[in-house]
Amino acid sequence: MNKTLLIFRHEFRHALKRKGFIIMTLIVPVLALLAIGTFQLVSAIIEPAEVETTTIGYVDEVGGFSQYTAQGHIELVRYDTPDEATKALINGDVSEYFIISPDYTSTGVIDHYTLEKQPETPAPTVDAIKRFLTSNLLAGKVPQDTVNLIEAPLNMVVTRLTATGEVATEQGGWGNVIVPGIFSFLLAFSVLFSASYMLSGLVGEKENRLIEVLLSSVSTRQLITGKVLGLGAAGLIQVAVWLVSFPLLLNLASSTFGGFFDAIQLPGNFIILGLVYFILGYLFFVVVSAGIGAISTNTQEGQQLLMTLTMPVFIPFWFGSFLFIFPNNPIWVVLSLFPVTAPVTTMLRLGVSDVPVWQVVVSIVVLALSIIGALLVVIRVFRIYLLMYGKRPSWGEIIRNLRSE
Amino acid sequence: MQAVEVSHVVKSFTDKVAVNDLSFSVAQGELFGLIGPNGAGKTTTIRMMMDIIKPDSGEVTIFGEKLGEAIKNKLGYLPEERGLYKKLRVLESIIYLASLKGMDRHSAEEKANGLLNRTGMLDSQKKKIEELSKGMGQIIQFIVTIIHDPQLVILDEPFAGLDPVNTELLKGMVAELRNQGKAVILSTHQMNQVEELCDRILMVNNGRAVLYGDLAEIKSRYKGNSVFIDYEGELGEIPGVIERRTLKGYVELTLDDKTTPKEVLAYLVNHNVDINRFEAATPSLNEIFLKEAGKKS
Fold first, then answer.
1. Exposed, middle or buried: residue A401 (CB in 10 Å: 0-12, 13-18, 19+)?
2. Does ipTM exceed 0.90?
3. CA-based nearest distance B125→chain A, Å
4. B53:A208 CB<8 A
5. Which tens digits make up the pLDDT trace of B145-154?
6. B74 — contact with chain A (CB < 8 Å)?
7. What is the DSSP-derived secondary structure letter of residue B126?
C-alpha cells in the first residue's frame, strides 16, 4: 500500500479515538438534545407561574383620565393629591406613581415617582402608562379600532425580493444568523484543537526520536501529507456529524420550543460552503501547526507559537457586532480573503448578508493555494529543522535556510 | 557492490562542523563498528546515510544508489534515543512501522509474533508501549528495526540501558544478521562490544576519521613493545628489557627496539623460569580510543 495512505490511515484512526475529538464532535448534538430534553421535562413538571399584578398610582390633575385602568398585569389606581399618592407609595400600596400635571396636554411631561433606583423605567410599566394615557386621550374621539391600531406595536412583514422581482428563497432576519454563528464558532475551536493535536503529535515524535524511524521509512512529504490528510478526514467526520445534526435538531427544537426556532433557517448553500470552508480551514491550520511543530523544541513552546498565529481566527468574533451594523464594510471582504480569517468570516457573513459569488470563489481559491504553499514550505522547514533539538531557530534564520536549501 | 559508500561527506551546523570530509565503506556481510566520543559526528553521519539530513557536500550511496524510497525498505535503523507511540499496543506498533517498510499486515504479524516469541515477549504483545520497561521497549524497537529483513542494519547504541541477559540476546541476534550476509553498522562508545562483534571499524573524532580499517590490524598497529609475564621463581636480568613494572599478579616488561617478545620468551624458557602466562601486550580498543580521543580533543 502507498506509504502516504498508510500514514493517513494510522493518523485518521488515532484522531478518531482521541478523547478530545469525540467530545468535540458529540458536544453539539448532545448538548442540544440535553437542552431540548430539559426544557420538555421542566415544562411538563412546572405549571406556568402566575404573574403578579402590579399596582401603580396616579394623580390626575388634568381630569378625564379615569378609564382603561386595567392594563394587562398592571392596575392603575387614582389618588386625589400627590401627598396621598406618596403615602400609598411609602405604605407599599403602590409600587410607584405618576402625576398627570395640568399642562400635560401641552408639554406631554409626566412626573414619575418610585422608591427603586433604576437606570430606566421597565418597558412594561412605560407601555402600560403610555397605553392608559393614549386610550383616555382618544376615548370617544376616534373609533375603538383606531385606538387599538395606534397602541399596537408596528407589525411589519418583510419580504426580500430578488433582482428580478420574485420572492427570494432566502429571507433575512436573525433566524439566519444563528446556525452560521454557532457553526463558525465550532469551526474555530475544532480547527484549533486539531492544530494543537497535530502539533503535540509531531513534537512528541520529535522529542522521542520516533520521527527518525519514520523518516528512515518514508519521505518528509509522505509523512506530512499523510498526517495532514488523516487529520483532515477526521475533521470531515466531525463536521459531517454537526451538519447532519443541525437540521434534525432544529426540527426537534422548533416542535418543542416553537416560535423563534421556527424562524431559524439555513442560508442557501450553507451546508456545501460550510463543508468546504471547514475542510480548507482545517487543512490550513493543521499544515501551519506542522510547520510550527518542525521548529519547536517542545510542546509548550509550540503551543505558545500556535496560539499567537491562530489568534486571528477569532478576529471576526471580536468585531462580530460591527458585522451586523456595517455588513458591507470593505474590511469584511479583506477578512474573507485572508486565509487565516476566511473560513470564520465567510460563514458569519453568509448569515448576515449576501456574500458576492466572486468573493466566495476568490476566498476559496486563496485558501486552497495557501494550503498548498504552506505545505511545500512546511516540508522544507521540516527537513531543515527536524533534527535541531534544543534551540528554536529565529525567523530570519528560517528564511535564510529556506532560500539556501 | 558495497552496502554503504560514504565519500568526502561534509556537514556543518550553524555553530560547528559536525562531519568533516569523512569517507568510508561498509561491505555486505560485514559487522562494521562506528565509534567515537560523544559529539564526534557519528549520529550526524548516520542521519546523512539515512537521508534524514542532507550533507553540505560529498556523496552517500547505499547499495550503489542514492537513497530513495525503494532503498528505504532495505534499511533498518535503530536510533540512539528510542521512541514508539506510547499509547499504541506492542503488536500494533510493530505492524504499523513494518508496514511503512513495505510489509503486508499478515506477514508483519506472523514475523512479529516469531520475534516476540524469540525475545520472550510474546505475552506483552497486547500491552501498550507505555506499560513496558525501558529494556523491553528497546527490544521492541530492535524488532521493529529488523522485522522487514533489511539488507543494511544501522544500530545506534543498541546495548545502552540493557541488562546483561538482554544484551547477550541482542548480541546473538546482531551476529546472526551478519551471518545472514547483511551489512550491520554498530555505532557505540562501548568498546568491548565493538571488539567482540566487529570486523572493521571507523573511529571518528571532531567529525574526522581517526582510525579506519580492520580491527585486528589496527590493534596490532597500536601494539606497544612490551610483554606481560606471570611466573614462578627468579627472573634475573633479561637482555633487551629496558623497564620492569610489577603489577598485581604479573610483571610488565618494556623491550628495547631491537628485542622481540619471541626472543624474551626463548630466553626465559632457556633459563628455566616457570611461566604461567606470557602475553604480548596489545592495547584494548578502549585504550586506543582513549588515546585517540584524548589526542585530538
1. middle
2. no
3. 19
4. no
5. 999 999 999 9
6. no
7. T
